[in-house]
Amino acid sequence: MTPPSWRAARWRPSRANTALAQRMQPSRPSSVICMAGYEDLEGTEVEAIIKFKKALGLNDIDAANVHMEIAKRIDRNAGVGQQQAFEKLIFVTNLVFRDAYEYLLPWKRLFGVHESQIDDVMRESAKSLYASLLKSIGRGLDIGTLIEVRRSQLAYKLSDEIAAEMFREHAKKLVEENISTALNNLNNRTQVVEEVKSILSFNGMLTVLSNFPGEERFVRGLGPITLGGDSDHEKRVEDLKMLYSAYAMEVLSDGHLNDDKLAALNQLRNIFGLAKYEAEAIITDVKARVFQTY
């Protein structure tokens, strides 16, 4: 049953709302209320609109009516750009009114937009914004950034499951950048080893942070990386073996294999998605080559 305080929230056109909607129409394409369809959301729109609403002294009902007036002015049949602008308006507007949007915003009744369509818009828009935010997370894994990105994820109402998967893909891309750099510098063993060490350091921090006290405050998806199981893993496995061999040669160059070295090699094996027998064969081969040098 609709809460009593929201029963009057049904959309109602008025001269005041129409006039205010006209004032809120964009004089510039970057307007936070209604932007050009091909412009990306910046993530600051919701907060800006809430502040604007408060500055005008609008209650939620009147503010929602204004948003509906603006939506009426978007011709969704005028091309992809207009349709995208309408979808962005749905996303931003629903976040402005949060849990009350179902009562305040009659998208279906006025525009024929069904709940499943709204869910799709909310999810895809949130994913787009979140993907941009993930770019701010580098191999250093700054704690403040991890917390801020988590807050934004919750503000965008992006599910933990999707957020975690997106972060894992982002982390893999960072590792793949190291791998590409190493493969492009195979004649420079020092460079190759440095790239592998960067991968191990990054993976180690991901593992530690996933078990850190209060980790629920951090971005979802923290944890060790593995490239095993990726669709192109079989095509890349020989390259990965080559890098594994180069690193094994570095750590075993003194002829000794201690627990720390073995732990690092095992960690790298898991990251590269190599089978245990594959890694053991590489280490055996490296040991033989090192032995020949003595």
UniProtKB/TrEMBL annotation:
Coiled coil: none annotated. This is Chloroplast inner envelope protein. GO terms for biological process: protein import into chloroplast stroma. Transmembrane segments: none annotated. It comes from Oryza glumipatula. GO terms for cellular component: TOC-TIC supercomplex I. InterPro entries: TIC110. It holds the Pfam family Tic110.
